[in-house]
Prior knowledge:
This protein has 24 helices and two strands. The chain is mainly α. It has three domains: 158 residues, Alpha Horseshoe (Serine Threonine Protein Phosphatase 5, Tetratricopeptide repeat), CATH 1.25.40; 89 residues, Serine Threonine Protein Phosphatase 5, Tetratricopeptide repeat, CATH 1.25.40; 144 residues. It has a two-stranded antiparallel sheet with strand order 1-2. The radius of gyration is 22 Å and the shape is globular.
Amino acid sequence: MRHDVFDQPVSLPDAAAAGHWNAMCLAFLAHGATTPKHLGRVLDAAPDHAGAHAVKGLFYALLGRRELMAEARTAHHRARALGEAANGRERAITAALGHVLAGEIAAGVASLEGVLRHAPGDTLVMKLGHALRFVIGDGAGMRRSVERVMPAHGADHAGRGYLLGCHAFALEETGDYAAARLAGRAALTLAPDDAWGLHAITHVHDMTGDAAGGLAWLEGREDAWAHCNNFRFHVWWHKALMLLDLGRLAEALDLYDTAVRAERTDDYRDISNAASLLSRLQGEGVDVGDRWRELADLSEARTEDGCLIFADLHYLLALTNDGRDAAVTHMLGRLHRDAMRSSNQTERLMADPGLSAASGLAAFGEGEYGRAFDHLSAARPHMQGAGGSHAQRDVFERLTIDAGLRAGRLDAAAALLGDRTRRRGGHEDGYAAARQRMIAQARQASCVLEVRA
Length: 453
């Protein structure tokens, strides 16, 4: 039995195939654009390798697009058919894929955790589980998983740097910002191409209201994400958010055109970056021109996807901002149908927080701010289940608060704003400071009117 770069068993016929497998694993951990190329070479060299088919299926499933789920199912069928020749690790990855395709992402994570209980040094399986937990917003689970396997990732382990990058992100998502900084820096020392670890530190700067420090952190480190797949657009998105927080609005808008949306893909992650940034810019009074149109055109073709509520809400954000009323109505109807079924985890998330959040976005787009505030506030306690990071979900937090302000519900908006700051360790960012000023001005104006009356 051959073993891979992490000393885990692989049912591959020769050293050349194992070399391609190792290259695929390391590229995947680095979010490298070459990952599918290396995986293709594995399958060319070993077309009957169940593990490669299972990993291919998970890669497709993580892309969160309806048409690619068909490709993932084909890969799952092939991996299962080859199961007799597969080892336990490969069968577990195949089982995880099956759960994901059935809409039960947490069950898919459990299959992978079963591998890690017996082989805690399996960095590939750790990262696959980390990616699935990200989709359902399970930051605490990410942290537990990484910390359980860390003792098996010693100083000479090939995956240690990437594990530390995952630890940095999990630490940040669970509020341990000082430890996240240290872990992220250690990750990059061991694995200079670990874009995930670098990006974890940008999250720390976001959550601690330190936009200037975040820009300084990214400056000169572009090589750490230049090699990436579309994840590089997400790192540029973080830089645009920092510029926005510092009031450098024109620069943030320019970065939207030159980096965040440099390639007009229909990948839900790229659309999410773009829609989120445009929404924030608009919230600060920036005229974004006709930029919503391109996103809405792509989103209108996705109203029936229903793969991830995180994706659907960003599609809806684009549709409402471009006035695509028919498409908004269609998507809301589909969300209701999914919620009524609630036959799996994905559909249950469509119901909660999906329905309330979607209804709130639709109402916001119609200028019905009181109704928007009610719906978005109802979704708010459950929004982590929509997946993504705190920084990504913050666009919905901001829209909730802004809806409250526009509806004149100053006390309720102030309470949410205070809770947002507490969740960030008491750190106030530019958005919070600006909204506090708005609330103070509105209250002062109200007092003046009362005196005059």
